[in-house]
Amino acid sequence: MQERHVDGERYFKELAYSTEKYLLPFMEGVRKVVPGMKVLEIGCGVGGNLLPFVERGCRVTGVDLGKERIAQAARLLDPARYPGVELIAADIFTVAHLKGSFDLILVHDVIEHIPDKVRFFELIKEFLRPGGIIFLGFPAWHMPFGGHQQICKSRFLSHLPFFHLLPRFLYKGILKAGGEERGTVEELLSIKSCGITIESCEKFLKRYHYKIERRKFYFINPHYEIKFGLKPRKLTPWIGRIPYVRNFFCTSCFFIVSDDRS
């Protein structure tokens, strides 16, 4: 397992860096981020993605299922220092009072963990104000580490590409043979059940009346700059136009969408 996955403060700073340098400019290609804007992050984890918005004077709300992650986010974001910060440990669909509240919703490296994507795409735009936008960022399922196997404790398995694409019984057997703990195996198998492709994402967006305002596919994920010292690179356009094949090369997909009926 990579150190950043157990060092919350380090991971917080890495996320804040990537969001400031790459996610914010991508979003601002559609809508300027200004003080007072209300921002929601679904699956906020330790809160690193929210820091650049806080520093720009936005009012931010982070929602995450993990109580420990929310507690850590509270320490790192410090709502006492930043009164515009609200952190909630809950399922997003249980906080109905937030509906209709936000100018921007951030869903970064989360959607591939959500089992009920029908419910997600059907309902999530209800949290937007009129004219609001949603950022979706996720790894294409078929890319080398689309199974999130980098969380494995085994150094070999955490660096082994594509083996998440094996049949479920083989994948599970390799994880167990590699000495992975039961919880890790269950999490990785859950991700295998929830993985998303570019095509399936776009089908959901069309089905539930979202308008794609902007999209970008990366061959080298922008977050890899601070993780591995690699310069981000966009996916070659001709590969990016080939359905299904592009998923094997796309380490990160960025979308900005809006409610097509608003």
TrEMBL record:
Q: Which domain of life is it from?
A: Bacteria
The protein in question is named Methyltransferase type 11 domain-containing protein
Where does the secretion signal sit in this chain? none
Annotated Methyltransferase type domain residues? 40-135
A molecular function (GO) held by this record is: S-adenosylmethionine-dependent methyltransferase activity
Organism the protein comes from: Odoribacter laneus YIT 12061
Stored InterPro entries: Methyltransf_11, SAM-dependent_MTases_sf
